[in-house]
Amino acid sequence: MSRIALPPLRRALLVGALALVCGVGMLVALQRRLMFFPQVAAEAEVTRLAADLGATAWRPGGELHGWRFPRPGAAGRLLAFHGNAGMAVERAYMAQAFGADFEVTVVEYPGFGARPGEPGEGAFFAAAEAAFDALRAENPTRPITVLGESIGSGSACHLAQVRAEALAGLILVTPFDRLAGPAGHHFPWLPVSLILRDRFENDRALSDFRGRVAFVLAGRDTVVPPQFGQALHDTYRGPKRLWVDAGADHNELPWDRRAPLWAEIAAFLRGP
């Protein structure tokens, strides 16, 4: 039986379509490797680094949840969720930025640093809830503010959705409204909204929250372009304030206690 020969143009289109399908399928399977960039290290190594940075391991229930930067006399507590690279102990700059306003605890994500597990939206949200509940249990009357940096804005906004009654306020640094926005910006040729597994829909998470939210954007952000954080700010219906560092890229914000930005944010969150 003879094979039917396809016209050259149809054959080329078929080959191209098959290549595209295979490419999209590969990206679906590997997208978490393209999204998350954890630094993994043995706990002994991370503990030595923590000691140099003035951090102590935070182990509610005996399990490593993150790292605490003690601040004697601080009235409030800040529970922080870092960006999608490195590991939590490297975020000592978060504690430095807020001076005496907060005792800072930076949560480690599953699959990052010395914490076992696999990165992903569900794992991040479960870790966020466990961390918030453990911190609240230490002192139920002491306020907790939540900070989310970049991908960490997803965990912060999730807590605003599921722990709103106990959350004193939010600080969102280089956030986005939905992850599909910046993902589509970087991969415009892909049907991102259809294939994205970890969606981090922050606008939906904040839809019923009415606490104070501070938004911090980098005007030249090449990772999360500022229009996506601006969109989240614009749709939020509670008390809010926006800070934009016009000349900064994603990792160039001035995390320094001498920068007036952080003191202004702390004052805004305390209210009038």
Report on the structure:
Strand 2 and strand 3 form a beta hairpin. An 8-stranded mixed sheet has the order 2-3-6-4-7-8-9-10, sandwiched between helices. The protein has 10 helices and 10 strands. The model is unreliable at 11-27 (pLDDT under 50). It has 272 residues and is an alpha/beta fold. The radius of gyration is 21 Å and the shape is globular. It has helices spanning 8-35, 43-53, 92-97, 121-138, 152-162, 180-186, 192-195, 202-205, 226-235, 260-270, and strands spanning 37-38, 56-58, 66-69, 76-81, 85-86, 102-107, 144-149, 167-173, 213-218, 240-245. The longest helix has 28 residues, at 8-35. Helix 4 packs across helix 5.
- The CA-CA distance between the termini, in Å, is 85 Å
One letter per element, helices H and strands E, the order comes to HEHEEEEHEHEHEHHHEHEH
Mean pLDDT: 88
Computed Rg: 21 Å
The tally of strands reads 10
Please outline what is shown here.
With 272 residues, the chain is α/β, with parallel strands linked by helices.
Q: What would the keywords be for this entry?
A:
272 residues; alpha/beta; eight-stranded mixed beta sheet; globular
Helices and strands, with pairings:
Layout: H1 8-35, E1 37-38, H2 43-53, E2 56-58, E3 66-69, E4 76-81, E5 85-86, H3 92-97, E6 102-107, H4 121-138, E7 144-149, H5 152-162, E8 167-173, H6 180-186, H7 192-195, H8 202-205, E9 213-218, H9 226-235, E10 240-245, H10 260-270
Parallel strand pairs: 1-5, 4-6, 4-7, 7-8, 8-9, 9-10
Antiparallel strand pairs: 2-3, 3-6
Helix pairs in contact: 4-5
